[in-house]
Automatic annotation (TrEMBL):
Signal peptide (UniProt feature, chain positions): 1-24
Source species: Ataeniobius toweri
Domain EGF-like, residue spans: 183-194
Superkingdom of the organism of origin: Eukaryota
TM spans (from-to): 205-223
Entry protein name: EGF-like domain-containing protein
Keywords: Membrane, Signal, Transmembrane, Transmembrane helix
Length: 231
């Protein structure tokens, strides 16, 4: 038996799949809050920070309450005293402001874990673990009571935010996490190493693609309608 969906049924199915995908994405993003059991520790600075920021505690995370467009935004993450030996990734935490990884037997932390963590401004690490990007990536680094404190993420570009010696000509340098920067093409430049001058040909590139998509969608709709009538 062959089942043929109407246009409205197909649209409804797509909507349901999108809702399910978004919910699963949010759950995946918040999995980092369950890397350790329990809730934010009383000995962690994340708790007081969350209270002063009017945040909301969810397991080991502090979530922002002042952003209705992104209610699950993680601003604080407490992974202290979790028996972690390494940190490979922190999914969904790229907008975090504070991370506590102290009291862990950490042997290795990949610096790429914090790629894109532009808002990360305060880290608490075991004293033997170096700050991501090294001391040059932070305004203040100190060891106190068996913990290493990394405070105030530095912009790895020059102070003016204009041309960088590390970026190709006709490009601008921008921060991209502790010890990282990214190069973006200056105005009216695009392409490989920003060598091509002029605006990106949006109409020439996406126009035929959009037209072909519309035509194919229409043909599929007509075909499905004919099959539905024949039944």
């Amino acid at each position: 038996m062959k089942v043929v969906l109407s246009w409205s049924e197909t649209a409804a199915l797509i909507f349901i799949l999108n809702v399910c995908f978004n919910e699963s994405y949010q759950l995946t993003g918040l999995q980092v809050c369950s890397l350790c059991g329990g809730t934010v520790q009383n000995t962690s600075d994340v708790g007081p920070f969350c209270s002063s920021s009017a945040g909301r505690i969810d397991r080991r995370c502090c979530l922002a309450n002042n952003n209705t467009s992104d209610p699950e935004r993680i601003i604080g993450l407490d992974l202290s005293n979790c028996s972690l030996t390494q940190v490979k990734e922190l999914p969904g935490a790229s907008k975090v402001f504070m991370i506590d990884l102290s009291l862990n037997p950490i042997v290795n932390i990949s610096e790429k874990v914090f790629l894109g963590f532009l808002g990360l401004n305060y880290m608490i690490l075991p004293q033997d673990v170096l700050c991501p990007g090294g001391n040059v990536s932070w305004q203040k680094v100190e060891v106190k009571q068996g913990k290493r404190l990394c405070e105030g993420q530095n912009n790895m570009c020059n102070q003016t935010g204009q041309m960088s010696m590390s970026c190709p000509e006709h490009s601008l340098c921008g921060p991209y996490g502790p010890g990282f920067f990214e190069c973006s093409c200056a105005e009216n430049y695009q392409g490989y190493k920003c060598l091509r001058q002029g605006e990106f040909p949006v109409v020439e590139v996406f126009g035929p693609l959009a037209a072909s998509t519309v035509v194919i969608s229409f043909l599929v709709w007509v075909t499905q309608r004919r099959k539905a009538k024949s039944l």
